[in-house]
Design the sequence.
């Protein structure tokens, strides 16, 4: 037997005393990432969703129609609803108030009792007790049984018993919590993040009113407030998402059905665009990876439209087979199912696994589509003509892709001539800069570290892929260069769906480096649109970054300081003028473009891993991201103009 010197000779060094048993909510505070994903801005907003989800469950049970979310100036949040109110009576087993049990015991609550909640949401099922554990202060106020009950907590621990503080003629629950600054690394709530999710929830729960009140922003008639309410549900949701696209059919196709206690609602609408936009939800949870409900939907769409086209002889002239993807090009769809006992794959609940849901959704969508096609022959003809156009374009795109991807970039043959590659062959250690213009590209080549940094200059503005059919993008020289330089390829799976193959990705860090001006921002947006539409897995994998070159260099004598915003510029000027009491001799250089820096300056400020600032591109909400890209880069002008007018005050544009 071989000797392992890593094993201690004395097993007594590891005894029962070494076992740590965390009590109550201590585990949440010790390992918050296990419960809310992270302690950054994503985790911060997750705390709000856990509280809101409890109120949503009351709505799903038929007892709540209004939810208010307040953002307070002290960085605390209040969520109120007019549901039944959390029970406050004595819990027989634990011999404490049911309110205290809900607030202090993990996995305790009414959603585990199917007589109380037929269906329920919740992102990870940890509930409001997790929010309590991660809050320096939390106050629960319950209106029920004609009384107002209150209990306060600190770091998840009750600061006294539940007490009656008044009378009430209404019912509901108010939760106010202050995230613990010793645990959460981010404490500033983003208004748009909260508004986007509440808007989404209003569409998913027709008839529910949600209000967002931001006490940090005062307006003429009080605090900034938005109200979200939808009577049309998913029909209005899909119209909202397609507002910046040209419609192929005027009214969405709407499906509702109930089978074996599973509720199915689907809304779908065709537009003249080229991308498929399918979003799915289970009990209000966004299932980003799809699942059995999406499989059932796609199966029905493929079967019904194919059958209709064949029965009417509309595919006779085609010399190639229609693919499932052809039926879904230019289609925006929302699939929402309510499942009593959902089975999710993975901790993040990104994919539904209930096998029975496939058939339930397929039958519901199939029956509705069959009736729609029979009753609306003109619209059906438009859709099939769109399918034929999509199939023709897909066939052309396949040939164009083969032309671009026929040589392996790893052989060194066929790599873009403008690419200055790095010497490292380790993708994890390698990074590539997509640089605006040959001039800046030349400077970047001189300033880089050749061991691990590659430079690909891009000439001018790449094609706006939002307005182009797929086969057209492969005619664009800059896009072809990106494909071949990265070593990725687009393939088709067995069902004809486009799949990005990233097995041969040559760089795990892809940095968009453009000028800090309006044109540079536009080019960055064009590149991001391309990545979002055709290389989204690279964004989801965390490979895409945006470089942050400085805006100013403030110099006095031999001293100088780089500044990335106006506040830093002012601070630098103040710092240099303190000694003399005068700002004379201080020079300020405004960098209009990367080309104004020499190689050493570009390395120091933008490329040196020890000093640079990179912004990683992430997808916080894929539904909202799709809508924004479509609005900014699509054909419809009015939505884009409204967006620009609403957000112009945030722009920092040099005149």
Sequence:
């Amino acid at each position: 037997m071989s000797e392992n010197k890593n094993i201690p000779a004395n097993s007594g060094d590891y005894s029962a005393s070494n076992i740590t048993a965390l009590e109550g909510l201590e585990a949440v505070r010790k390992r918050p990432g296990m419960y809310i994903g992270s302690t950054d801005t994503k985790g911060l907003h997750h705390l709000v969703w856990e509280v809101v989800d409890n109120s949503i469950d009351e709505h799903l049970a038929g007892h709540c129609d209004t939810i208010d979310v307040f953002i307070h100036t002290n960085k605390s949040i209040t969520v109120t609803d007019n549901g039944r109110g959390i029970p406050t009576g004595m819990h027989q087993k634990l011999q404490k108030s049911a309110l205290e049990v809900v607030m202090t015991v993990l996995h305790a609550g009414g959603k585990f009792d199917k007589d109380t909640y037929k269906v329920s949401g919740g992102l990870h099922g940890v509930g409001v007790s997790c929010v309590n554990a991660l809050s320096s202060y939390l106050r629960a106020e319950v209106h029920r049984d004609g009384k107002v009950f209150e209990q306060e907590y600190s770091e998840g621990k009750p600061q006294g018993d539940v007490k009656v503080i008044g009378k009430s003629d209404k019912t509901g629950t108010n939760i106010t919590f202050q995230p613990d600054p010793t645990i959460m690394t981010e404490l500033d709530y983003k208004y748009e993040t909260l508004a986007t999710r509440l808007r989404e929830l209003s569409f998913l729960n027709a008839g529910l009113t949600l209000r967002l009140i931001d006490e940090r922003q005062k307006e003429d008639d009080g605090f900034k407030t938005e109200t979200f309410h939808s009577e049309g549900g998913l029909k209005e949701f899909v119209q909202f998402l397609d507002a910046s696209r040209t419609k192929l059919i005027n009214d969405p196709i709407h499906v509702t059905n109930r089978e074996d206690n599973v509720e199915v609602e689907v809304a779908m609408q065709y537009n003249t665009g080229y991308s498929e936009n399918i979003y799915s939800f289970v009990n209000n949870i966004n299932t980003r990876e799809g699942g059995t409900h999406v499989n059932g939907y796609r199966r029905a769409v493929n079967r019904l439209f194919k059958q209709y086209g064949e029965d009417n002889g509309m595919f006779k002239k085609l010399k190639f087979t229609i693919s499932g993807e052809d039926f879904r090009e230019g289609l925006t769809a929302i699939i929402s199912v309510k499942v009593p006992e959902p089975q999710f794959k993975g901790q993040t609940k990104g994919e539904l696994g209930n096998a029975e849901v496939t058939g339930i959704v397929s039958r519901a969508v199939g029956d509705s589509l069959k009736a729609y096609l029979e009753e609306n022959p003109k619209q059906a003809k438009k859709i099939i003509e769109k399918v034929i156009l999509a199939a023709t374009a897909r066939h052309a795109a396949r040939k164009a892709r083969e032309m671009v991807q026929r040589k392996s970039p790893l052989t060194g043959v066929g790599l873009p001539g403008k690419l200055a590659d790095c010497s490292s062959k380790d993708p994890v250690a390698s990074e590539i800069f997509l640089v605006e213009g040959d001039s800046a590209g030349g400077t970047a080549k001189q300033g880089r570290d050749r061991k691990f940094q590659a430079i690909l200059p891009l000439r001018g503005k790449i094609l706006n892929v939002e307005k182009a059919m797929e086969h057209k993008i492969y005619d664009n020289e800059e896009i072809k260069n990106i494909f071949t330089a990265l070593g990725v390829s687009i393939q088709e799976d067995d069902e004809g769906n486009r799949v990005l193959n990233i097995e041969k990705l040559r760089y795990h860090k892809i940095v968009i480096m453009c000028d800090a001006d309006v044109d540079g921002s536009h080019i960055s947006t064009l590149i991001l649109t391309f990545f979002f539409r055709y290389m989204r897995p690279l964004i989801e994998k965390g490979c895409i970054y945006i470089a942050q070159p400085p805006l100013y260099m403030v110099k006095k004598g031999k001293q100088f300081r780089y500044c990335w915003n106006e506040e830093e510029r002012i601070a630098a000027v103040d710092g240099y003028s303190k000694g003399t009491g005068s700002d004379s001799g201080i020079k300020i250089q405004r960098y209009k473009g990367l080309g104004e820096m020499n190689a050493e300056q570009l390395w120091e400020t933008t490329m040196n891993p020890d000093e640079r600032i990179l912004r990683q591109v992430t997808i916080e909400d894929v539904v909202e991201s799709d809508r924004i890209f479509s609005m900014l880069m699509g054909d419809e002008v009015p939505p884009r103009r409204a967006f620009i007018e609403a957000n112009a005050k945030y722009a920092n544009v040099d005149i």
Remarks:
- Confidence is low (pLDDT under 50) at residues 1-9, 14-22, 408-413.
